[in-house]
User: What shape does this take?
Amino acid sequence: MQLSGRVAIVTGAGQGIGKAIALKLASYGADIAAVDVNLEKAQEIAKEAQSMGRRAMAIKADVTSVKETEEMAEKVFNDLEAIHVLVNNAGITRDGLILRMKEEDWDAVIGVNLKGAFNCSKAVLKYMTKMKWGRIVNIASVVGEMGNAGQANYAASKAGVIGLTKSIAREFASRNITCNAVAPGFIETAMTDALSDKVKEDLLKHIPLGRLGGPNDVAMGVLFLSSNAAGYITGHVLDINGGMVMA
Ligand code: NAP
Assistant: This one.
């Protein structure tokens, strides 16, 4: 699963799962573009990748912006001379029951989680097509497969990401570009810190492996799907959920 000579873009790389993915890909040899709305956090990740001997850059970009994502891809291609891997990881939640969910909460979550993945994919695909090699890995969620009360916007965005993944997989297979998703269960990050101990206890009852996941569990799946080893896998959704949902 070596990624030496590969250039990988990770969105939402500043913390949590994105940080773990960026550093995992770097530790397996990839040069890294750490993309986040928070430039300082992205710079820390780039520095850490550089300390491993990789070329690495930090880019401030909001994935909801077509202009910023196009400029981001152009900058990575110019500075690192390639784009081999894109990990669409940036994501947000704005939870609430449907009858109380505000329009702006629906739009914000669909905008970052789904439109953001579309924008970044579209921006890099022209470079991957030129290179005749590419790997896109989208971070979906178990919630996109099973639904979740109080997360209609988030679940819809992640189900949409799965449809986007399979469509890119079909459109670009002939160019030697694969597109897969990972669907994490409940992973300990800032996003899930907000859950109460009671909710976490209840969740554990539904996880056969008996623990919440860690960012590294997700990063290992992304590493595999980004590598040569996964060359005959496309349009797949890899569940990383401790057995919580078994397709
Ligand atoms: P996190 O800790 O909240 O990190 C998300 C990162 O994305 C943050 O650095 C955030 O920056 C950045 N970001 C937010 N909006 C952005 C935008 N518009 N453009 C660029 N960057 C943006 O979340 P996480 O738990 O690591 O989750 C990462 C991904 O995994 C998300 O797609 C999430 O839906 C998915 N996921 C998480 C879990 C879980 O249990 N944690 C489970 C399933 C799937 P700021 O913090 O500065 O806003």
Summary: The mean pLDDT is 97. The chain has nine helices and seven strands. The first strand starts at residue 7 and ends at 11.
